[in-house]
């Protein structure tokens, strides 16, 4: 019984995986430890898809698999560099746009921080984020009456705190 070319390429592929997969994984782990398993998976998938081009020679086949892994690694590094640069840009933008103003608002922010957490959250969601009380009730999965009570309590506490500060 004669083996087909497809059977031979599959057998060579499986032999390559047995021979080199662990070494490729170690190679990837030294370079991108957290992504190594995913990169190995991707390399084996690419090798499977291109198994018709798998070199006959065992050493050449091993180098071919390392070449695939290396290309994926380089793509991963480039992606990580782009992601990191984007994160830095976003972080800088958020710092600029969300930095609290250097004014008397610090006193109000301090008063809000002293409120009970559930009350402070309602106050900030209304006045800083622009949510309605009904929106907050949906967001927090609580009855509207609960949110209205927290908002009223927060306003009262802030009013008495600001009145006491003026005296």
Features of the shown structure:
mainly alpha; Rna Polymerase Sigma Factor, Chain: A; Arc Repressor Mutant, subunit A; 2 domains
Task: Annotate the secondary structure layout.
Blueprint: H1 5-31, H2 36-49, H3 58-98, H4 105-114, H5 117-127, H6 133-140, H7 144-166
Protein name: RNA polymerase sigma factor (Sigma-70 family)
Domain RNA polymerase sigma factor 70 region 4 type: 107-158
Family: Belongs to the sigma-70 factor family. ECF subfamily.
Q: Can you walk me through this structure?
A:
The structure is a single chain. The protein is an all-alpha fold. The protein folds into two domains: 5-98, Rna Polymerase Sigma Factor, Chain: A (Orthogonal Bundle), CATH 1.10.1740; 105-166, Winged helix-like DNA-binding domain superfamily/Winged helix DNA-binding domain (Arc Repressor Mutant, subunit A), CATH 1.10.10. The protein is 80% helix and 0% strand. The protein is built from seven helices and no strands. It has helices at 5-31, 36-49, 58-98, 105-114, 117-127, 133-140, 144-166. Helix 1 packs across helix 3 (58-98) and helix 2 (36-49) packs across helix 3 (58-98). It is elongated. The mean pLDDT is 85. Residues 107-158 form the RNA polymerase sigma factor 70 region 4 type domain. Keywords: DNA-binding, Sigma factor, Transcription, Transcription regulation. Belongs to the sigma-70 factor family. ECF subfamily. InterPro entries: RNA_pol_sigma-70-like (IPR039425), RNA_pol_sigma-70_dom (IPR014284), RNA_pol_sigma70_r2 (IPR007627), RNA_pol_sigma70_r4_t2 (IPR013249), RNA_pol_sigma_r2 (IPR013325), RNA_pol_sigma_r3/r4-like (IPR013324), WH-like_DNA-bd_sf (IPR036388). This is RNA polymerase sigma factor (Sigma-70 family).
